[in-house]
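Batch manifest, entry 17 of 40.
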Amino acid sequence: MSANSEWLIWAITIGFGFPLLVIMLGEAIHHLERHGKPIAATLVLVRNLVLPVLVLMLFVNNVVNLDDRGNFVKIIETLFWLSVIHASLSLINAVLFEDAEADTWRARMPKLLIDLARLFLVLAGSAIVLAAVWGADLAGLATALGVSSIVIGLALQDTLGSIMSGVALLFERPFTVGDWLRVGDIEGRVIDINWRSVRLLTSQRQVVVVPHQFIGKEVIWNYSQPDGLYNQTISVSFSYDSPPNLVKQVLKSIALATPGVLAEPEPEVTTKSYDQTAISYEVEFFVENFEDVGHILDSFMTRVWYAAQRNNLSLHQYQYEYSTQPPTKTDSPSNMWAKNLHSIPSFMPLAREQESLADLTKGTVVQKFGAGETVIRQGDRSNALYIIIAGQAVITITNDFDKEQEVMALSLGEFFGEMTLFSGEPSPVSIAAIDDLQVIVIFSDAVNKMIERQPSFARQVGQIIEARRSAISAAQQEDVSSNAGVELPIDV
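Output type: structure tokens
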């Protein structure tokens, strides 16, 4: 075969073969990407890098027939072998690590170690290419690299120390990205682990860069392992006048009712110590997200005050102030109830009768609830009527999907609790405070006396019960229609 025909065959082969291979690789990449296969990235490298350099090398050697010993040809051959090394390492990474099953040694391999191994293989492959293509002396190159490594190592000993500490930490895997850590006095969520350091995002939204060398010398507190639950302990003190069993019961109910506190493991309340002026109690509970601890503690401690007021418990006061002024004259209980009830139309007749008010105060208390607190929970029984004298409340129902839906809002002068008080059945709704709520709680005996003195009050309660049942039914129908995706007519 003549030289003219040989270069023509190579030209035709390259001219038709290169586009055909590009099309075939493109179809293969599209198919693999649709199925989420990581090897698709390797084929992209082959199509966009290895194949063009290979075609250029064949074109230069077999069509143009340049001298094999020329620098231009050597540069192309060097680029080709380096691209082959890059694509081969990408293939190994895709096969071994990218598609690794969970809980295998391949899935647990630290990314930092993979990157270091990749760098070492690239350097070793580059040295072999230099020796094969350019005829470089590997012994002399190794000697030069050894001397240079000593100089560089002395200059970068702190950085290299951090890298080696990082490799050791990643082998041990005491934490991963997303975990909440405390390292020394630093506390935050891990957002990045790189060659030199770990970046933590603190609760104040500040990024702290912690070198691996520093982490290796400190005790690491991981709040996210082993099960992602965080234990929180808080101390509260009550006076000696408050019965310990009642205090422990109230504190446990507050913990269970605080959003974010887990019911399992169950909160525990223990009597910690008898101090000089108060009894100290310790509340222990678990939360799922460490970043929410601050908000949960605030909500819990806020509810403690309201619960203490409702249950006549005295929180410990560290400083007492005694006034030298003579005590002011306060209204009698009857006058106080009269002021509150006089603005409520349903209770105005009773507010005008001092005898009725005197009987009413015997079975009535004033209670306060903080914003978000539940006054009556769906499914509970209540033996009292609640009259709102300050703030607002909301009536909600919980459907079969555990989704809470609002029925209506209640404001000053309205009352609730009548649906379970008069029927004796569990409450079909929940009532919670929208903001700070103050209510008059009238227990069943006092309510019966009110009905005896004012029979029209029973009719008003009956009308309100029917209206609220209709509202509940309408809310349930609306919930069913929204879940079914069909709009149903609602007649309130």
